[in-house]
Amino acid sequence: MSEAIETREKSTAPASGPRPARSWLRFLEPRGHWVWIALAIALILPFQLVPFRVFQLTMVLVYAVALLGLNLLVGHGGQISLGHGAFFAVGAYTAAIMMDRWDTPYPWTLPVAAAVTFVLGLALGVPAARLHGLYLALVTLAIAIFLVPLLKRFEDVTGGSMGLTLSKPQPPSWTGLAEDQWLYFLALAVAVAAFALVAGLLRSRVGRALHALRDNEIAAEVMGVRLAFYKTLAFAWSALLAGAAGCVYTWVIGFVSPDSFTVNLSITLLAGIVVGGLGSQAGPVLGGLFVMFVPSFAQDINQGAPGVIFGLLIIVVMYVAPTGLAGLAGRAVRSFDRTLRKE
Amino acid sequence: MLEVRDLTVRFGGITALDGVGCTVEQGEMVGLIGPNGAGKTTLFNCLTRRYDADSGSIRYQGRDLLALPPHAIAGLGIARTFQNLGLFSRMSVRDNVLVGAHPHSRTGFLSAALWLPVLRGEEARLRREADRVLERLDLADVADHPAAGLPFGTLKRVELARALASRPRLLLLDEPVNGLNQAEVAEFATTLREIREEWDLTVIVVEHHMGFVMGTCDRVVCLDFGRKIAEGPPEEVQRDPAVIEAYLGTPA
Ligand SMILES: Nc1ncnc2c1ncn2[C@@H]1O[C@H](COP(=O)(O)OP(=O)(O)O)[C@@H](O)[C@H]1O
Ligand SMILES: [Mg+2]
Questions:
Q1: Nearest residue on chain B to A210, judged by CA atoms?
Q2: Domains contained in chain A, number
Q3: Which of A242, A317, B92, B233 is the most exposed place for a label (fewest CB within 10 A)?
Q4: What are the backbone angles phi and psi of residue B116, rounded to the nearest 5°?
Q5: Are strands B55-60 and B2-11 parallel, antiparallel or unpaired?
Q6: Is B14 close to ligand 1, i.e. is its CB under 6 Å away?
Q7: Is A319 among the domain residues?
Q8: What spacing in Å lies between the alpha carbon of B40 and ligand 2's midpoint?
């Protein structure tokens, strides 16, 4: 019988429509060309902008990597975290302490920061996998609240409230790049690698298991998905990405202090991914733009109460684009594609 | 193949299953009937380890099912559909079916993230198998459509496809034709009969639709208030006075 199926399959294969030639690129679909366009723009920008703007874009990339992790957990896994600023901070401090204490060359701090936050995420993910909704929100929030006093407490290692000041990675002379451009490309490299890793995850069995438990936990379990395993690992990977982002943050800023990683950061990150677009590929980038520019924009408008403006902006965006900026952009891109095709 | 003994499940004051016992042989198609609230879905939930039994035992191919965690059930070849649809609404039809194949794949986070050759091979195999199931159930046209928004009858077939993708030996269907029109019911019955032959399945089907049960099942078990009140060939059970009274005595 299996032979019959095989032969039937062979005979129908050519009829089943054109196969995409570069099948390994299929993880970029749909609308893969937009990824290449975005990447091309990203490569040109640092040569067109003044150093301060390049720095800002570098920070957008840093936040995008953190949001990529948060998106994996919240958008794809259906969990919640109000404490991702803590993983970001642990990644940042891991890099800073290694560079400060042991003069570790900066490239080595990235795998270590990733490993440390992964293990931390795993340790916290085990209890987190048992919690739902508001309980999980509360526990992760507690982690974020807990971290600042902890950083201040271990002054010898962390530099206490004063923080640690480090020298930034310098561009190798063969590149001919300025410091801001070099940092930008470091951040871009990490961001592209992180996006590729997550894209691979999401279009595999693992991504489907996460989507399944997000959409219907009961059915997912009946299909053989081990809920606790997937939730815990999603938490750990999500923490790893936030930690990697934190590490690049240290490279770019050259300074860490507890007050850079308050609960505000965690909340802004969560707001960023919700506004950017939960569960969408472009969400983390759009969210990164939001996290970078909107709080300072709010500050400019009203010195006294930036929080009010920030909150109002979130409400407005969610009202105009309930599926986030990515949903809005998706609609624009689709109509643009349609217009192109008509011509 | 399956042996349920003395199964009792209580929820607070309600006894949903009260000492139920039955056996199902390899290759049989058994109908499970009974008025609403009789405990049919509860029995399915015990078989898939959704509910714990207060007492009794379930043996499946010589194994004690009650000793296993819920996620291990699918790997043993037990698949089910849900009374009120249990689909992954934001996932495409194809991805829904691919989740069904979850127990037959190994890839973990790391090899998936790195898109290793192992994964690519496995992924290609899974997609081939899923496409075969989709084609068999006439779902190829909607394969890339999200599950949400498709007609009810189609969703029922998607659920069946997802269950089949797990290569089940024992298939549990909870009211598969509930909500379908007459033509769809007939079509579903035909498909089910064919698929049972093709895939060598053992089936337990919960259904109120008597025509459907008569036309597809070899044997019928009737529950009422958590107790088994009749068992035998469909025509006999249909005429059983206890069964008639159970159905007439309870507003459906
Ligand atoms: N999770 C639950 N909690 C409390 N009571 C339940 C639960 N599941 C089922 N029951 C009760 O058990 C009885 C049997 O329900 P069920 O198995 O769904 O019946 P059927 O599928 O035969 O219509 C009903 O009285 C129902 O209210
Ligand atoms: Mg029921």
A1: B99
A2: 1
A3: B233
A4: -70, 155
A5: antiparallel
A6: yes
A7: no
A8: 6
Minimal-distance CA residue of chain B relative to A235: B109
User: Is the confidence at residue B50, as pLDDT, over 50?
Assistant: yes
Residue type, A164: L
- Give the CA distances from residue B42 to residues A312, B49, B156, B242, in Å, rounded to whole numbers and listed in that order: 48, 10, 20, 21
Residues with CB under 5 A from ligand 2 (ion): B 41, 83
A9 touching chain B per CB within 8 A: yes
Q: Are A195 and A134 in contact (CB under 8 A)?
A: no
Between chains, do A24 and B90 touch, taking CB under 8 Å as contact? no
- Asked, for residue A62, whether it belongs to a domain, the answer is yes
Q: Is A250 within a domain?
A: yes
Q: Do B107 and A223 touch (CB under 8 A)?
A: no
> Which of A38, A111, A91 lies closest to A252, judged by CA?
A91
All residues at 6 or more sequence positions from B47 whose CB lies less than 8 Å from its CB, including other chains: B2, B4, B58, B60, B65, B73, B78, B80, B172
Give the Å distances, CA to CA, from A311 to A137, A147, A303, A306, B19. 19, 24, 14, 9, 58
Q: What chain B residue is nearest to A233 in terms of C-alpha separation?
A: B109
List the single best residue of A208, A210, A227, A231 to mutate versus B (max B Cβ within 10 A).
A208
* B45 Cα nearest atom in ligand 1: 17
Alpha helices in chain B (DSSP H): 40-47, 93-100, 109-113, 117-136, 152-165, 182-199, 210-216, 234-239, 241-249
Domain that holds residue A203: 2-13+32-262
CA distance to partner chain B, nearest, from residue A175 (Å): 28
pLDDT digits 0-9 by tens, A190-207:
999 999 999 999 989 999
- Higher-confidence residue of A307 and A139: namely A139
Q: Is any ligand 1 atom within 6 A of the Cβ of residue B45?
A: no
In a domain, A213, yes or no: yes
Look at residue A291 and tell me whether its pLDDT is greater than 60.
yes
> What ranges do the domains of chain B cover?
1-77+168-252, 90-162
Alpha-carbon distance of A13 to A304, in angstroms, equals 66
Helix H or strand E encompassing A201: helix A179-202
Q: Which residue has the tokens 């390899």?
A: B26
Q: Does B63 touch chain A (CB under 8 A)?
A: no
> What residue's CA is closest to ligand 1, atom 8?
B42
Percent of chain A with pLDDT over 90: 41
> Which residues of B fall within a CB distance of 8 Å from A220?
88, 99
How many C-alpha atoms does B196 have within 13 Å on its Cβ side?
A: 22
- B1-77+168-252: which CATH architecture? 3-Layer(aba) Sandwich (3.40)
A233-248: burial string, b at 16+ Cβ within 10 Å, e else: bbbbbbbbbbbbbbbb
